[in-house]
Amino acid sequence: DAKTTQPPSMDCAEGRAANLPCNHSTISGNEYVYWYRQIHSQGPQYIIHGLKNNETNEMASLIITEDRKSSTLILPHATLRDTAVYYCIVRIPQGGSEKLVFGKGTKLTVNP
Amino acid sequence: DVKVTQSSRYLVKRTGEKVFLECVQDMDHENMFWYRQDPGLGLRLIYFSYDVKMKEKGDIPEGYSVSREKKERFSLILESASTNQTSMYLCASSIPGQGTNQPQHFGDGTRLSIL
Questions:
Q1: Chain B within 8 Å of A97 (Cβ-Cβ)?
Q2: Which residues of chain A have pLDDT under 50?
Q3: Phi, psi of B113, rounded to the nearest 5 degrees
Q4: Which among B39, B25, B38 has a CA at the least distance from the CA of B92?
Q5: pLDDT at residue B100, as a whole number
């Protein structure tokens, strides 16, 4: 089972910031939080990952709470092309297999 | 940018056929993975490989095999295709090292239908 909880859907206006929350209350000390997104009929696209500190790259920012039990992915200026299912994942070690477990994700719809 | 290329976007095969799905990555990654994705079941790991000629079973290896003869290429084989193997198949690769936290990068997937 996925170790994360996300709202099933969210809407955002084009040009505004999209803030996608994720709960991971059972995360262990050495597990990272990863975000991927999947546009319909395409493979998952890596966005960002982090351990404790906030992270930013050209696509998004990741804010992780101090207790690490939740995080928020921020798309600063959402565009129509950001409409996708967004997955928050906690890395599950399995003898080094680096298996990814995707939950149901959040369907983000960016509206014009 | 990392490029993971899967040979076919859509494939239709018949029950009992031997099916080959090919995946190639251009970033010299040692780790490669095969998943299948089904509605309501999410992503499930079939097989993975840490090096040439090396393979490990994932969660659902039954009915599948893999081949890694070259570092850049990881093939998934359905020995005798069945209708319950109709699915979206996703290949991924990542930077080497067990226990690393580098992300996996995915191809665009192969939507396989078994009739």
A1: yes
A2: 95
A3: -115, 130
A4: B25
A5: 59
Decide if B96 contacts B50 (C-beta within 8 A).
yes
B33 in Cβ contact with B25 (< 8 Å):
no
CA distance A42 to chain B (A): 5
The predicted pLDDT at position A8 comes to 95
Would the CB atoms of B42 and A101 count as touching at under 8 Å?
yes
Cα–Cα distances (Å) from B114 to A54, B65, B80, B102, in that order, read: 45, 17, 10, 34
- In whole angstroms, give the CA distance from residue B48 to residue B31: 7
Inspect the interface and report whether the beta carbons of B109 and A103 lie closer than 8 Å. no
pLDDT by 10-residue block (mean), chain B, 115 residues: 88 97 92 92 89 90 96 96 97 73 89 97
Paired with B35 in beta bridges are B45, B90
Smallest CA–CA distance, residue B88 to chain A, in Å, is 9
CA B64, CA A66: separation in Å to the nearest integer? 43
